[in-house]
Amino acid sequence: MKPLPFQKDTQAWIAQVWIAFIASVLFSTLGILYAPIEEQTKGYLAVSFLFTMSSSFTLAKTIRDNQEAARLFSRLDEARIEKILAEHGTIDKL
What we know:
- There is one protein chain.
- It is elongated, with a radius of gyration of 24 Å.
- The relative contact order is 0.08.
- By secondary structure, the protein is an all-alpha fold.
- 77% of the residues lie in helices and 0% in strands.
- The chain has helices at residues 11-33, 39-87.
- The chain starts with 10 loop residues before the first helix and ends in a 7-residue tail after the last helix.
């Protein structure tokens, strides 16, 4: 069975992602704090911002988990096919 290729992110990409995340949280927070609006509206915006962040993390994790599960099922199917071919002696012909 051939191992599936593992994709590893570069350090530059990881740094860019963290910098963008920190900047977006910082500037959104500053924008909410210094907006010339009522405190009640700022509170609503803050809660909405936190909900958006948490749902984004949940969505990203769900997509990643589904991709990993599909990769695992693909490997299991490959192993079953190789076993069937080996039992019938046709694996040597490939």
